[in-house]
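Hey, I was hoping to borrow your eyes for a little while. A protein chain has come my way and I'm curious about its shape. Take your time with it, there's no hurry, and the full record follows here:
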Amino acid sequence: MKDSLVLKTIQEKIKNLGSLPGCYLWKNQMGQVIYVGKALKLQSRVRSYLNPNQKDRKTRALYVELNDLDWIATRTEKEALLLEATLIKKYNPKFNVRLKDDKKYPFLCVSTSEAFPMVFLTRKVKDNGDRYFGPFTDVKAARDTLELIHRIFPVRKTKLKLPLAKPQRPCLNFHMGRCLGPCQGNVTKETYAELVDEILRFLEGKKDRLVADLKSAMLTASSKMEFERAGFLKQRIEKINQIREKQTVVSLDGGDEDILGISKREDEGQIVILEVRGGRLEGKKSFPLTGLSFSDDEEAFTSFLRDYYLNVTVLPSVVYLPTTAKGNHDVFLEAILEKFGTSIKIKFPEMGPKKSLLRLAEKNADLSLTERILATKLRDQTVAMKELQEKLNLPSLPRTIECYDISHFQGSSPVASGVMFVEGKPYKPGYRHYKMRGYDGINDPGMIHEVIARRLSHLVNEGEPLPDLIVIDGGLTQLSRAAEAAIALDLGHIPMVGLAKKREEIYFPGEKHPYSFDKHSPMMRLLRNLRDEAHRFGVTFQRLQRKKKALKSILDDVPDIGASRRKSILSYFQSKKKVTDATKEELELVQGIGPVLALKIFNNIQSLKKIEPK
């Protein structure tokens, strides 16, 4: 139940909002901004969050945590949209969908503010008259594009303030035919400007028109017997055509289009843009997202459209989105129109070639997300092992870690489980189950002593390598008994810790007081994964033992059922429920069970079921 004083304070604030457009910021008890939203009418929008019986899962979760409210009024909803993006980047609120990487993506800059422009990579976009293309999510792709331009177009590559007061000798690029030599004054501004125009059209994706113009210029130069210029133009045409041949034609009617696909897993997501320019699939851009736990596709795409397209330098004509992203994008389109002087169309194809491209984009998004999650896990595992070595003062990196847990049901059918992680990942061949031999009832410390003694004895006797670290699921008592087992075998040097369940504190052998570490650190996440996996593995085995015991007991009192027939019945039905629910005819199908015996078994089971407690 939300604190009445908190609600009353927020409601008093809402009274002052009125019907202004703007952004609202929900804060938690610690004063952290947990959600930023925009609204055409702040008062009515913010008030809607205070209903505890929300249908929307995200709003319900937000309601539980909200403790305070702040807002910023704007003149228009369009201004609120732009402010919303700024505030999300500033506060990184947990309930907002946002681009995961806070880094600036690189752009290709054509320095058109200079007399003799050059092309280079930059992460800063300046309002100085230069032309920028991007952003590129893949730095290698950006560098490859820059290298391609330098290979096709003889644009200058050396930073100089041109024209020079005194011409200098041209560099090697001039002699290799890869620069027109503006530093020496070998080319006029007009001729160089034509070259720059070609580069701009190439980067804008207008390669078909560029090739057509180059062919026309080549024929003109040839007719004027300017054969050297015609030769240069021919080389550029050939290089551009080589690129176009490698690109897939996806739209016979041409056009510049972006096709967007999304993949989501819990809080993480990935959006992929397939860029179609001039009807050809030119490339792919991939963007990591976070904050998706309580968000649907519509919110994810709405946030991405705002964050991406209001920061690009070249717009497509059409953006294709899946039907799950349908919503009101009018404010976004107004902002695009104001910034670029032109707008884009947003379409939601439900069939045909564009639908197929959407599926392709979604597949690429799924592959990119899988790759990112695996890379993150690998990085976290490496960090976790290094943290374990440092925090636990281990002699070496704990590449092999084993964890042990005890499982029983009110003292019956006690078992132990041991799991092994190698390089921070589960290693299933190293998993072990143990039936307790020396203990029955509730005695977890004694059982831990037994299982550690058995495990270490086996490793020594078989000459197998010892683990780098042993984790005991339990506190000081369990850890002490485990350490005793190791010392008895002269293996007290093996690093061993206990992980308490409630507070997730770490115990060390011989020390009464536990240590606390950051619960969200890679080290603690790895230890929790070990503990949870050992618990899961143990509980599964313990339940199996109980089932076998129950199956055995239900047949014990049936006349004429020996060990062989009992085994046949258990093997045939596999579970107690299937045996107790079996008909006389089904029992007859078991090998060695005839009609007479089947009837006896059936009648006995039915009589047992009548006296069993419900």
The first strand starts at residue 22 and ends at 27. The radius of gyration is 35 Å. The chain has a mean pLDDT of 83.
